[in-house]
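Researcher: Dear colleague, please comment on this protein.
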Amino acid sequence: MNVTELARQLRINTKDMLEILPKYGFDIGARAIKVDNKVADQITRRWRFIKRDLDEKKRKEAEEQKLKEKELRKASGHKVVLPNVITVRAFAEKLGMSVTQIITELMKNGILANQNQNIDYDTAAIMGGELGFEVEREESGVAEKAQDVVKSEALELAMESAKNKESRPPVFVVMGHVDHGKTKLLDAIRHTNVIDTESGGITQHIGAYQTIWKDPKTGAERALTFIDTPGHEAFTVMRSRGAKIADIAIMLVAADDGVKPQTEEVIKIIKAAKLPFVVAINKIDKEGADPQRVRADLSQRGIQCEEWGGDAPMVEISAKQKLHIDKLLDVLLLVADMNADKIQADPSIPAIGTIIESHIDKGTGPIATILVQQGTLRRNDALVVNGEIYGKVRAMKDYAGKAIDEAGPSVPVQIIGFKVAPEVGDILDVSKADSSEKINVKEKKLRQTGAERQSVISGKEDVDEDKKKKVLNLLIKADMLGSLEAIIGTLEKFRHDEVAVSVIGKGLGFITEDDVNKAEATGAHIFGFKVNPTPSAEALIREKELSFTRYDVIYDMFNWVRAELEKMLSAEKTVTEIGKVKVLAIFRTDKSAMIVGGKVTEGKVKINTHARVLREGVDMGNGKIAQCKVGPQEVKEAVEGTECGMRFEGKVKIEVGDMLEVYTEDVKARKIVFNT
């Protein structure tokens, strides 16, 4: 056989083959052209063993080389600083290694990712440490806070620099505990029925609305802007955001329910923002309503009503029955008039405002809701967000969905024209269009994807340090950024010693095939909050038999999480000792049961209880007392001093002289608490 043909069959370079074969007893010559057919056949038969040996040697050499490199990096104190989220490619560049090496290391750790996918800091830190690098977290929290300050200062500066100021509609934020009637109040004011469109009758994101109020006494018309914030504990961030862009707060408290946790939180937000406010005591029509108790509860928290010598206006209303809504509006407008010098804007300048909601629509693309705070926003205006041009205004809609061409101060408007969805809380400033550059869409989307997919682990700072902790993996997609923030924020508050929640992926929009593959690789349950999988992703979910649930109400989602975590907890057992029996005789022995006789020396013996078998003080195992007889009569229990016969069910073989310790077990399911 020709040597080159043999090498081809063995799938190896001819030169390498001639160098290797002598080491395994086949010295056919370094310059051989042909090899005997019998020898070739022997080489072919042994080649798989030779190949396995060669591969093992290569693996060991590679491991030794990696170990040497790791020790060198440790010795040199090679340090890398990593952000909260980083792409695989960027991570490889930071370490000075190839993308292939990093992907291989990730696969060893059970993570499937390509070069453009993102990994969180915890994962990167663990891998970096294993490779011999000293890893530090980038001070992103400080940077983010600084960025927020810059945003706030930029907005304030722009607002103050306006010269031709005039009165604008006041912006009211409605705040309160869940189900205290915030959206119902807006419904009463606007004479619409928005609450019926909210999932589960609760507001899941910030809604901004404007209405024209006609004074029944004077006939004068005034535009009023209202911001509705969710009341559920999950939406702390959103409530705070609503407070920062409003002029006056409406603190809603149900007369039949009183001050609740979110009410107390609202008090803190209002005080921190130094917002003028009015207390609306709602549901006065309900049985059990006690407005005076509400006043007393608020008084204990530093909110003193005007009737009691304080400075907090309070109005008793029924949003459902539309009682005293006129009175409430009179008080609100009075407070607005008292702060008229602060409720002004210049409509002649380019628009400045705040992004209060952002999401991606399947057909339309990125959409954002903006509250214009200064100037006027017009069609074809540049969408300048934080100094970058995100696109231009292609279309605008008011709160009712009506197309409009311009929006002035205090007007909430939905914008179509963004190339990339802006972040909630970002500042829109059209005046900076000439000095701003167009956004790098690809880079921005990649960065957003990173933010959406960073891992959030709650229940422990580092689950990997405690391998005994059980972890519930989740992948979450939502329709709006505000809702996603709220969901993640609540999950982060969860703490428990035995179980934890890990969000292995998060984002906006439809659930994709990539999401499904990631969930499969990590064993995660897929959540869609008001979003569904794409048809191909749905088919993949069915094919792989993965767990997927869509939710429209956030309570239901958290209830599911809580229930699943409770299932993962070990049950709480309470053992109660009730008696002891001395075994005096063995009457019958079956495969899994015995009939024994004995005397109750302490307490009592009862049927359907447990018994541990002690032999000379040594625990031999447990079983169950299935039956008990005193004489010929079957009984439920036998008391101290009584001789009885018992049917013992268990694997332990009882002997005469053994002591049975009889006890009961009370098993209770344990509950999960979210520490908010």
In short: Residues 140-150, 192-206, 231-239, 449-467 have pLDDT under 50 and may be disordered. The first strand starts at residue 79 and ends at 82. The longest helix spans residues 37-76.
